[in-house]
């Protein structure tokens, strides 16, 4: 058979599946919910993509090459015997490209957007009958109501999407177009899901949203609440030990949420609060609607409420028109905040976003150089932050096995990974350790002789 031929359509209903999620934590969450839904339908997971009868590529569109990557992944799903699995493209590339995907890659059977994946079972049936199975609707009724309840989780940590979408329209960002407008899930739906996760063994929940701290809703008594109210309520769930949230926008950092960091013990001392740039002209061109100073004032107040809080951020270098001096302001704000960790990216023009058409697109070499300088500074701070943990006694929640026998990996309250060798301990244990050494990306600890409460 010619390599360029499209492998024939699978001719039986899929019994096994494999979900491959790219990009953000919300995609990981969506991938898990898809898997649970297919499990409910009697399908079983397969470890390898090519072994599965159905492969779902849960794609990300935030930066360049995502689309090309999807097409090359599709090509790689061809099996040695010339057959292929049923292929679904889900996530933000599916939303942005729609049926263009199945036109360009004939072996794609299903295209399903991030707000429509609760309809996957129907789409699988349609594809099985050889019908077009494309669904990029953003229905008003939430997909969450149509998904099965959460099942027992393999790990003691879980994500829980509490709001989706974004109304901020930063000029570089594709999210408001692929994930739609901001929608908060209801108080009850969130609490029910959290309780189901905890009953299934989860001890730490990370609340998710593109602008998670913009969450609003009515509580059980009909009072309007913000995310701080929700966090306080979740903290009452007995066996839930830790609460985290990501990603936040500086403008939605309410007084109540800042105060909660000082008052709610289960709310972990970690805040991912992206600023993107340290220069006010660039921030304005990005439509961020905050300044470098107003951001720094928020950081100051958060640190007053919770002095040991670890901060994290996102940065974009080489936004259109960014001068050397403007980039220096980004280094300056990093120096002022001293983040525990950061994500930094080269600006990537996204089709359909305002910044993609702006003058002054920055050459690749300039972006490379700026990114290298920024990352060197961020790494320096990250190493200093980790080194400062040596000698500290802290609780870690054991999440997974390490590479060596008897080794387990857990996280500190400040989201640092800690390796411990402790054959008598198990995943899911909260254990007190003494930190004995630190690297750039993880720490090593020894169980302290005094048992954690
Ligand atoms: N180019 C580069 N980085 C981007 N991000 C979002 N859109 C782009 C883009 N077009 C980054 C931002 C955001 C993170 C999730 O991805 O820093 O906070
Ligand atoms: Fe994108 Fe800005 Fe919304 Fe974040 S706040 S998802 S960067 S538009």
From TrEMBL:
Listed A to Z, the keywords are: 4Fe-4S, Cytoplasm, Iron, Iron-sulfur, Metal-binding, S-adenosyl-L-methionine, Transferase, tRNA processing
Cite the MTTase N-terminal domain residue spans from the record: 15-129
Supply the EC number(s). 2.8.4.3
- Please give the Gene Ontology molecular function terms for this protein: 4 iron, 4 sulfur cluster binding; metal ion binding; tRNA-2-methylthio-N(6)-dimethylallyladenosine(37) synthase activity
Location in or out of the cell: Cytoplasm
Which amino acids does the record list as binding [4Fe-4S] cluster 2?
Answer: 166, 170, 173
Quaternary structure note: Monomer.
What family does the database annotate?
Answer: Belongs to the methylthiotransferase family. MiaB subfamily.
Question: Mind telling me which HAMAP family this protein's record contains?
Answer: tRNA_metthiotr_MiaB
Please identify the protein, giving its name as recorded. Answer: tRNA-2-methylthio-N(6)-dimethylallyladenosine synthase
Q: Species name for this entry?
A: Sphingobium wenxiniae (strain DSM 21828 / CGMCC 1.7748 / JZ-1)
Q: What is the lineage of its organism?
A: Bacteria, Pseudomonadati, Pseudomonadota, Alphaproteobacteria, Sphingomonadales
């Amino acid at each position: 058979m010619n390599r360029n031929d499209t492998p024939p359509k699978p001719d039986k209903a899929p019994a096994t599946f494999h979900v491959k999620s790219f990009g953000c934590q919300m995609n990981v969450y969506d991938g898990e919910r898809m898997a649970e839904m297919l499990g409910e339908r009697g399908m079983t997971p397969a470890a390898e993509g090519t072994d599965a009868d159905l492969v779902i590529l849960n794609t990300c569109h935030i930066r360049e090459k995502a689309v090309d990557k999807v097409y090359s992944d599709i090509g790689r799903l061809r099996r040695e015997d010339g057959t292929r699995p049923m292929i679904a493209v889900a996530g933000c590339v599916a939303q942005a490209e729609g049926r263009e995907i199945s036109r360009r890659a004939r072996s794609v059977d299903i295209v399903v957007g991030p707000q429509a994946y609760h309809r996957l079972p129907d789409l699988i049936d349609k594809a099985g009958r050889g019908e077009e199975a494309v669904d990029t609707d953003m229905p008003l009724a939430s997909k969450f109501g149509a998904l099965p309840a959460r099942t027992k989780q393999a790990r003691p940590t879980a994500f829980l999407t509490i709001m989706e979408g974004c109304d901020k329209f930063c000029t570089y960002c594709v999210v408001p177009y692929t994930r739609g407008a901001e929608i908060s899930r209801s108080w009850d739906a969130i609490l029910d899901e959290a309780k189901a996760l905890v009953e299934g063994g989860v001890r730490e929940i990370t609340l998710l949203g593109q602008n998670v701290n913009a969450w609003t809703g009515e509580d059980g008594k009909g009072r309007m609440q913000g995310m701080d109210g929700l966090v306080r309520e979740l903290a009452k769930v007995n066996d839930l030990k830790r609460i985290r949230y990501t990603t936040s926008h500086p403008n939605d950092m309410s007084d109540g949420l800042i105060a909660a960091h000082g008052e709610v013990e289960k709310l972990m001392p970690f805040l991912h609060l992206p600023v993107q740039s340290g220069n006010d002209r660039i921030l304005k061109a990005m439509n961020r609607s905050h300044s470098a100073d107003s951001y720094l004032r928020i950081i100051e107040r958060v640190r007053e409420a919770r002095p040991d809080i670890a901060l994290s951020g996102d940065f974009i270098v080489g936004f259109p028109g960014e001068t050397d001096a403007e980039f220096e302001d980004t280094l300056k704000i990093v120096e002022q905040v001293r983040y525990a960790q950061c994500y930094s990216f080269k600006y990537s023009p996204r089709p359909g976003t305002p910044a993609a058409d702006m003058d002054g697109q920055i050459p690749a070499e300039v972006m490379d150089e700026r990114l290298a300088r920024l990352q060197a500074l961020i790494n320096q701070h990250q190493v200093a932050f980790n080194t400062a943990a040596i000698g500290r006694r802290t609780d870690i929640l054991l999440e997974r096995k390490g590479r060596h026998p008897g080794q387990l990996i857990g996280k500190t309250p400040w989201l640092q990974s800690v390796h411990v060798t402790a054959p008598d301990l198990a995943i899911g244990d909260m254990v007190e350790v003494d930190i004995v050494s630190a690297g750039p990306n993880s720490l090593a600890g020894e169980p302290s002789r005094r048992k954690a409460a």
